[in-house]
Amino acid sequence: MFEPDFDKGNGLVPVIVQDFDSKEALMLAYVNRQAWLSTLETGKATYWSRSRNSLWVKGESSGNVQLIREILVDCDSDTLLFKVEQVGGAACHTGYQSCFYRRISDGKEEIVGKKVFDPEDVYK
Amino acid sequence: MFEPDFDKGNGLVPVIVQDFDSKEALMLAYVNRQAWLSTLETGKATYWSRSRNSLWVKGESSGNVQLIREILVDCDSDTLLFKVEQVGGAACHTGYQSCFYRRISDGKEEIVGKKVFDPEDVYK
């Protein structure tokens, strides 16, 4: 049974989350062993929230869950890549499609992402 | 002048590296402030190697440098996304196009990536 290298990051492994169809990079999150096993079992991306210090089924509040379509692992087995179907079309709690909605150029940030929902309507 | 949040990760910020054209996720790396500023200045992806504890101009041994095409930052400013032109077509030191050349399914790993070079020919 394959297991990521949880030792290197003190029990946490970073996960690149990518939209399976559009290939947009959606976010970076972290799994511990529990979140990893739960993701495999449920088919829904489940992370470890470092700010809340708890298991986090992505989309449990907003309904914007991430259905696992493919899981890849890097050469060192210390980083994962989840290719997902992003329900609701937005991964970011700000309402943007991707958490990477700001481009940096000449030292300044510029919004380039697409806003899909208004967070005030979703998180009540 | 925009600066990523280096405090959260003890001076390091993770960077998702994505091929600008194919949108393949190539690798995950880390920058400290020095690597970040060097990347901006040179236009070549420069990371902080956690294993060697030193600045790492990606591709300086293999010639497979990563030319920065676009830089994005996530909602928390604690993760970066470099969209790059991968010179030589391979990001991974194993010779694969992407470090994510193994797929996990049913608990087993399967090689799905494309091998571009033989590491023994490149790292002498």
Question: Could you explain how this protein is built, in words?
Answer:
The first copy, chain A, is mainly beta and 124 residues long. Helices cover 11% and strands 36% of the residues of chain A. Chain A contains 2 helices and 8 strands; from the N terminus they run ββαββββββα. Chain A has a 4-stranded mixed β-sheet with strand order 2-1-6-5. The longest helix of chain A has 10 residues. The N and C termini of chain A lie far apart (41 Å). The mean pLDDT of chain A is 95. At the A-B interface, strand 1, strand 2, strand 5 and strand 7 of A face strand 1, strand 2, strand 5 and strand 7 of B. Strand 5 of chain A pairs antiparallel with strand 7 of chain B, so a sheet runs across the interface.
Outline of chain A: globular
Radius of gyration of chain A: 15 Å
- Compressed to H and E, one letter per element, the order of chain A equals EEHEEEEEEH
Task: Compute the separation of the termini of chain A in Å.
Answer: 41 Å
**Proportion of β residues of chain A?**
35-45%
State the helix count of chain A: 2
What does the oligomeric state look like here? homodimer
Question: Percent of residues of chain A in helical segments?
Answer: 10-25%
Strands of the widest sheet of chain A, in order across it, are 2-1-6-5
> What is the structural class of chain A?
mainly beta
Largest interface: A-B, 35 and 35 residues
- Main sheet makeup of chain A: 4 strands, mixed
User: Which regions of chain A contain 5 or more consecutive residues with pLDDT less than 50?
Assistant: none
* Number of distinct beta strands of chain A: 8
Mean pLDDT of chain A: 95
